[in-house]
Amino acid sequence: MLTGARIPMTLCITIATFPTMFSITDEYAKTLGSLTGNAFQAEVCARLQSVILDFQTIPAKPHGDAGLDGFSHLGRHGYCCFGPELSTYRSNRSLENAIIVKFRSDLRKLFELEFKKKKLVPMPTGEMSTILPSGKKLIHIELIVNWFESHRVIGPIHTAFAEYQEMSEGNFVDAEASVKIVGPKELANRWTVDEIALIRAKQKGFLKEIQDAAASVSIANPKDFDSKMSILRQLRPDQLAGIDRLAEELMLKWRTALAFENSLNESMPTLHRLLEATRSRIVTRVSELMLASSQPWTQLSAAEAIAHSLLEPDFGQLYGSLVSDVAAGEIARLIGECPIGWVNPGGANVN
Amino acid sequence: MSIESSVSALAQLLANSTASPYARPERVTPSTFYDLDYRVCVVAACFEVHAKEDEARYRRILSAKLKLLQFIAIRSWLFPIVREWSASRDDPQRSAWSSQSLRRGFLGDSMHDEVINYMVAGGLLVKAQSHLVDAGVDFRLRDINRNVVSSALFARERKTIVDLKNLTITNAMLEGW
Predict the structure, then answer these.
(1) With the C-alpha atoms ordered A215, A219, A220, A223, is the resulting torsion angle positive or negative?
(2) Chain B nearest-CA residue for A330
(3) Contact predicate A70/A45, CB 8 Å
(4) Contact, B103 vs B173, CB < 8 A?
(5) Least packed by Cβ within 10 Å: which of A23, A90, A141, B163?
(6) What pLDDT, in 10s, does the model give residues A49-59?
(7) C-alpha distance from A171 to closest chain B C-alpha (Å)
(8) Which of the two residues, B94 and A335, has the higher pLDDT score?
(9) Which long-range contacts (C-beta less than 8 Å, at least 24 apart) are formed by A316-324?
(10) Would you call A269 and B105 a contact, using CB atoms and an 8 Å cutoff?
């Protein structure tokens, strides 16, 4: 009877857990697939570092990374990353071509080959010898890409690999080495994905999400902001074009700050609350300085740095460079929502 | 124009003009999300629509469910996401493609916890293990909702609360999965 009671319990746990694990893995793959460029490479390296003890990242400085973004297994396994900006490709065909071209180029560097008058010739660069441990050769290479939805990249890359292997002097890639193309799903499924990996990947994509969201945020009633810009135009008729550009720039920063706020409000209310409290401190500090100063505009100039210093402790670690955008946006918002403003002593003031 | 220079450029333009500055810190509008009266009204409205009577005829609601309901009610634009989340509960493949982070958002709503503590301290609600129970004192909780309805306040929030009634909210959802 006891045994009979245990089996359903075990089954129950398995059934309840499976969809959850499935979701996190797929969510991670989806997030990884949405990352591009350096963010994609950084996340792939972070992922590999967390699961492969001796995974070594390779800085591009001083003379490039020789096509290799990381290695492991004492210099016997190599990794190359490519995170194209998917939206910039009109068709799958052009994206496939871009992936083939990029990985072929990486492989030629690893094999120390170059095209001279359309002919492939060995061209030692010396960089690989400063990267791999002395006497080690790669026996397996993984080409990790953020989009792997077409088998048409496989043939050309494997064919090029075989060709390069034959042409190469084999200084850093073994004659029996193998190559594999890995997409987001393959990478996500290879090792268990946990919440930490998911959050880390999402944060890398967060900046882009905020920038995209900022483009669609509409400010309901920017008339106070507009009237301040009108006064500025009255005061500085010599700078009309510059003021228009400036107004546009400030509005974009304001929208970025709003998009950031909305995102926190929806998914991290605790941080949203912190942001709300910080905003209040920003306006108090900036107002104090402006009102107490004989040169208030100098203080406005420092307002962005003040906002940044107040936001940094709570948000810097999580959101990095986005904090600078939000700091500028918060100042633009203070101008737009009226706490900070200016009047034309000799003219008509709308505000 | 770089990100950092836009405010500085503005300051420079103003510095070389006759503009007279002002600063009115009191004009910073606090977010309604942290308005206690507003939050109490939303909780009362959620309770009115979603609470059920127990065997002793006390109206009660799961604390976690109330937390989710009020979170969506004051962010009505999230309703389609919750609807998709609810609809995909038996389909892991479909579930995988709806946002995970939004599912967990409500769990971190510490303001709601404080509002509930306030309402409990004020004798409007009673905590009973995993449930919140209408304290039933002078029908005060009902009166709050009645006033909200008669004054035609928070129509969008009330509509969302009613719409949420048509969704199945599972225990897994209340844990953010």
Answers:
(1) negative
(2) B7
(3) yes
(4) yes
(5) A90
(6) 999 999 999 98
(7) 45
(8) A335
(9) A318/A203, A318/A271, A319/A203, A319/A206, A319/A207, A319/A260, A320/A207, A321/A207, A322/A206, A322/A207, A322/A210, A322/A260, A324/B3, A324/B4
(10) yes
| Subunit contact B19:A16, Cβ cutoff 8 A | no
How many Å lie between the alpha carbon of B57 and the closest alpha carbon of chain A?
Answer: 33
Q: Are strands A138-145 and A77-82 parallel, antiparallel or unpaired?
A: parallel
- Give the other-Cβ count within 10 Å of A78's Cβ: 31
pLDDT of residue A11: 40
In this prediction, what percent of chain A has a pLDDT beyond 90? 48
Alpha-carbon distance of A155 to A168, in angstroms, equals 20
Of A69-83, A265-279, A316-330, the range with the lowest mean pLDDT is A316-330
Nearest beta carbon to residue B14 from set A297, A304, A331 = A297
- With bands split at pLDDT 50, 70 and 90, how would you rate the model's confidence at B5? low
pLDDT tens-digit map of A25-82: 888 998 899 898 888 998 999 999 999 999 999 987 776 667 899 999 999 999 999 9
Angle subtended at Cα B98 by Cα B92 and Cα B100, rounded to the nearest 5 degrees? 95
Each domain of chain A, given as residue ranges in start order, spans 9-190, 221-350
- A248's torsion region: left (phi>0), alpha (psi -120 to 50) or beta? alpha
One-letter identity of residue B12: Q
